[in-house]
Amino acid sequence: MSGHWYQKRSIKIAPYLFIAPNMILFLTFMIIPIFFTFYISFFDWEILGGAQFKGFGNYAEMFADDVFWISLWNTVYYTIGTVPLSMVLGLAGAILLNRKIPLRAFFRGVFFAPVVVSLVATGLIWAWLYNPNFGLFNHLLSMVGIEPIGWLTSKTLAMPAVIITTLWVRIGYCLVIYLAGLQAIPESLYEAAVIDGANSWQKFWYVTLPMLKPTTVFVLVISVIYGFMVFDLVYTMTNGGPGHATTVLVQYIFRKAFVEGEMGYASALGTFLFIIMMIFTLIQLKLGRERS
Amino acid sequence: MKAAPYKTGFIFILLAAAAAVFLIPFVWMLSTALKTPAEAVGRDIHIIPKQWMWSNFTDALNAAPFMGYVANTLIVAVFAVVLTVFINCLAGYAFAKYDFKGRELCFAMVLSTLMIPTQIVMVPNFYILKELGWLNTYVGLIVPRAAEAFGLFLARQYMTNIPNELLEAARIDGSGEFSIFTKIVLPNVKPLIAVLVIFTFMWRWNDLIWPLIAISEKSMYTVQLGLAMAKGEHFIDWTTLMCLTLLSIIPILIVFLLFQRYFVQGMTTSGMKE
Q1: What digits encode the pLDDT tens for the residues A77-132?
Q2: Which of A63, A108, A177, B1 has the most CB atoms around it within 10 Å of its CB?
Q3: CA-CA distance, B242 to A127, in Å (whole number)?
Q4: Which of A176, A159, A267, A283 lies closest to A225 in space, CA to CA?
Q5: What are the residue ranges spanned by the domains of chain A?
Q6: If residue B249 lies in a helix (H) or strand (E), which one and from where to where?
Q7: How far B89 CA lies from chain A's nearest CA (Å)?
Q8: What's the alpha-carbon Rg for chain B, to the nearest Å?
Q9: How close, in Å, is residue A261 to chain B by CA atoms?
Q10: Which of A33, A125, A281 is nearest residue B121 as measured by Cβ atoms?
Q11: A106 contacts on B by Cβ (under 8 Å)
Q12: Is residue B4 within 8 angstroms of chain A, CB to CB?
């Protein structure tokens, strides 16, 4: 009997002990930092000591800062350039692969491989492909008589070049998620549609797409967040340049904080980005509720 | 539903063409890595090097202290995998199988951070690492990111399916709560552990931003940090850089080829929640 009361008590205590390591790390490196960012943003805070309260000063500076607006625009540009294209091409690839076809696993592996490669490696490989003097792309263009193009050194082309690189990574991601979504659609729905006389296009429009809606919402949210958080690729390929042509929000925060040492200002930018993320999360929750 | 053979053939050709395009960057990297530096910047394009420069790899390893970076990254990745998988499974189990005060609140807190990437909190985390004396240490790279919202979420979801009878039977036999976890729960969730191990390894191996913040001493560089920094160094040519890039992606490609199934599983279940 004595084991009994002992067990009862340990059932009460055990879950707290089990979640403790996780919760402590969460609080220390996620929750507290969120509030800490907010706090620092009200100070003129140098990287090595020296903090002075300045109220909303950093925010006032932020809204008057051209580079902030440029980096916000670039982030939106990058997101709009990458998200719809990677989703549409990923879905198209998934539909093509969702059938009995030779080498199916091989194709899926090839499209997905860039997803597991680090963005630093991806950035370096593509920077080499884009190299103005010796890169493969300019070699190929010269064969049809086109002059070398400074892909990553041109203010107008640098961002599209980074976007194309991103597509190489993101199409495979969307494809794999869509493929799983397609495989979950019951075959009976298509059979019913055929009995009703639906052609391929109608089957796609009235069965496939509506059934994929949850998948689409998921891929969309993850992709938009990915777009807003882009850093590694830009850091390795262009470091934000030429000029500010590829400066995006996270990279601007990084530069302000760790290159220029303006932690207060960087935190104001971080708070701004945090609020955007919260808005995305709320939209996602709302969309999620609609579908259930 | 039987598709016409010409249709299958057409789709196959389409997929093969797309796959060829997707492979170009890999092929070109491999090709550059094996050419002489002079040939790599030559005017004409050929994929197969005229002279196979296997010595490029040994040269590259001498040019950059790359093996040191690999050692650092492996130390970080291995310890991070053990710690991450253990504490996330433990917490996931508690959230899935115990009734306790504050459960919903704690879980909601974790859930709300699922969409908040670490990039947002890099500034305060720099100070927290500094206060703890964890800058330029392995601990600073391993511990802070061990509590993963994704891992915890996946673990809780998976643990919910463990039958309660199994746990109750063990309790009647007099097992303690922790030994139920290690002896009964963990052996029953091997696929979950596989997914968590693979993803944690991939994230740690590929991570740039955390090492960028936590590490400034060259002797502590990880592979990605070393690569990112190597690009700016003028004495490193493209042949060397492609060698290092190739070496850096080989481990993750091997893991990927061996465990493709788990990658796909993890990617598709991670967000299919609610």
Answers
A1: 999 999 999 999 999 999 999 988 889 889 999 999 999 999 999 999 999 999 88
A2: A177
A3: 11
A4: A283
A5: 2-40, 61-291
A6: helix B238-258
A7: 9
A8: 23
A9: 10
A10: A33
A11: 19
A12: no
Burial class (CB in 10 A: 0-12, 13-18, 19+), B57: middle
Does CATH number 2.10.70.10 belong to domain A61-291? no
Question: For residue A258, what are the CA distances in angstroms to A83, A246, A252, A253, B198?
Answer: 29, 18, 10, 8, 31
Q: Is A203 left (phi over 0), alpha (psi -120 to 50) or beta?
A: alpha
Q: Structure tokens of A241?
A: 């340049």
Kindly state whether A168 is in contact with chain B, defined as any CB-CB distance less than 8 angstroms: yes
Q: Which residues of B touch A248 (CB under 8 A)?
A: none
CB-nearest to B8 from A101, A119, A274 is: A101
Q: Is A114 on the interface with B (CB under 8 A)?
A: yes
Length of chain A: 292
Contact assignment for A277 to B26 by CB distance below 8 Å: no
Instruction: Give CA–CA dist A23/A15, Å, rounded.
Output: 12
At B106, list the tokens. 């704690």
Chain A residues with beta carbon closer than 8 angstroms to that of B141: none
Nearest beta carbon to residue A37 from set B43, B91, B121? B121
ipTM for the predicted complex: 0.88
CB contact under 8 A, A139 and B144: no
Q: Per-residue pLDDT for chain B (274 aa), expressed as one digit of tens each?
A: 455 778 888 999 999 999 999 999 999 999 888 887 777 777 777 777 777 778 778 877 877 788 899 999 999 999 999 999 999 999 999 999 888 898 989 888 887 777 788 888 899 999 899 999 999 999 999 999 888 888 898 899 888 888 888 888 888 888 888 988 988 899 988 888 988 898 899 999 999 999 999 999 989 999 999 999 887 776 678 888 888 899 999 989 888 888 877 777 777 665 433 2
Comparing alpha-carbon positions, the chain B residue that sits nearest to A96 is B11
The helix or strand, by DSSP H or E, that contains position B241, with its residue range, turns out to be helix B238-258
Q: Touching check for B228 and chain A: CB below 8 Å?
A: yes
